[in-house]
Amino acid sequence: MSDTPERVAFLGPPGTFSHAAVDRFFGPGNNPERLSVANIDDVFLEVEAANARYGVVPVENSTEGAVNSTQDCLIDTSLTTVGEIYLPIEHNLLLKDPASLPHIRRIVSHKQSLGQCRIWLRAHYPEIELHEVSSNAEAARLAAEDPTTAAIAGEVAADYFDLKVVFPRIQDRKNNTTRFLVLARDHAALVTGRQGPAMATGHDKTSILVYAENKPGALFRVLEPFDTCQVSLTRIETRPARDDMWSYVFFIDFEGHIEDDVVKNVFRQLAGRAVKIKNLGSYPRARG
How far is the C-alpha of 83 from the C-alpha of 281, rounded, in Å? Predict the structure, then answer.
């Protein structure tokens, strides 16, 4: 039996949307134990060092796009993706005491959250000072200490810091969603409430990295097998390969499992069209 503790690492502090993603995937409570870390790199390091069995990291947002730090870590890691979560990002205006609403002096939140509520803030509090902090959880902590400070954060932060939701869902785009990946050291890791990710479910997704040749038509040659085999792509992103100037790596997500015959056929065709292919894992697609 593995000595890896039943622990899941996430981007903290407690009360962040990453914390909410952990609760959504594993269920609320303390099993597995939650391990809050300072940055995305540390999530990978804790799982790689077997200090945690799982790690949860944001990979893309429907408004802001790809999370570059997560992509860079995926290039170097030996970890495997064993699951995914789509979390609606709902921003709320929080206060320690709603009665202090007429007396608030400042509104605090993470830079991206303030930006995602820009129109609402301009319409309701154009004269109030907006202050950027390191995370929404930090904003909630400040609001819990000062009744004249309002925070923009999610419900998890409100519960964690015992704040009241004064105005719910104040984000300008109501369909704002972040996708998170669940990482483990190997495919056989058992995810709570699910079959082992090595087993195809019929409703799967596979994530790969493809290092393409640095010449005209390289991307077309990489994508052609997916079209030929009628395999649906769900995402494609590009990042610098970092090990060769002006070379790029493609992050590709597609429907299907590594053990599906049609996916095996795609890989056979890709073998002669790419410099290198890295399989990041096959896992059940998130529903809803």
Answer: 9
Torsion of CA 194, 200, 202, 207, to 10 degrees: 90
Residues 6+ apart with CB under 8 A from 103: 147, 148
256, with CB counted inside 10 A (0-12, 13-18, 19+), is: buried
Burial of 285 (0-12, 13-18, 19+ CB in 10 A): middle
Which residue range forms the structural domain that includes residue 78? Answer: 7-89+176-184
Q: Is residue 153 part of a domain?
A: yes
Q: Is the pTM of this model over 0.70?
A: yes
pLDDT digits (tens, 9 = 90+) for 187-201: 655 444 443 445 788
Is 118 domain-assigned?
yes
Instruction: Identify which has the larger pLDDT, 258 or 198.
Output: 258
Check if the beta carbon of residue 6 is closer than 8 Å to that of residue 53.
yes
